[in-house]
Amino acid sequence: LCQNGVGITKGTIGGILAADMACDIDNPLIDELILRELRRMIELPDWTIAERWHGVYLKLPGACQYTAEPEPGVHVAVASGGCGMTLSFGLADEQWTSWEGDAPDGKGREHAGARRSAATADT
Questions:
Q1: Which of 34, 61, 65, 69 is exposed most, by the fewest CB atoms within 10 A?
Q2: How much is the pLDDT for 17?
Q3: Please, which residues have CB within 8 angstroms of residue 35's CB and are 6 or more apart in sequence?
């Protein structure tokens, strides 16, 4: 919700994540369920939905990231399935190390390997 000196001026609500199935993400029933719960928390002078948007998460079965080197020196790394923000820093560090031989923090492959081992132990 965005608020200025005269009150709430704009809000964004959402959304739904449906894994492994086709989903009617523009279903008005889903909008109404979300609005029903929001009405329990706040009061607004107008509950009209001004605009809608939706996104689609790509998914790579069996993995949450895709890496490739389509040409020598051209590297591609994508975190799919809606986990890009969660994995981005770890994926970037891991890929940088594998591409360049040294992590961006300058601590090299051994340090990056230790970080991965520690992260694996935590999960």
A1: 61
A2: 61
A3: 13, 47, 49
What secondary structure does DSSP assign to 39-94, as a single string? HTT---S--------------BTTBSEEEEEEETTEEEEEE-TT-HHHHHHHHHHH
- Residue for token pair 């949450």: 64
Task: Give the HSE-up count for residue 28: Cα atoms under 13 Å, Cβ half-sphere.
Answer: 2
Rg (CA), the chain: 21
Conformational region of residue 75, where left means phi above 0, alpha means psi within -120 to 50, and beta covers everything else = beta
Sign of the C-alpha dihedral computed for residues 48, 37, 28 and 12 taken in this order: positive
Residue appearing with tokens 């959402």: 14
Cα dihedral: 85, 90, 95, 98 (round 10): -170
Of 107 and 112, the one with more pLDDT: 107
How buried is residue 102: exposed, middle or buried, by Cβ count under 10 Å (0-12/13-18/19+)?
middle
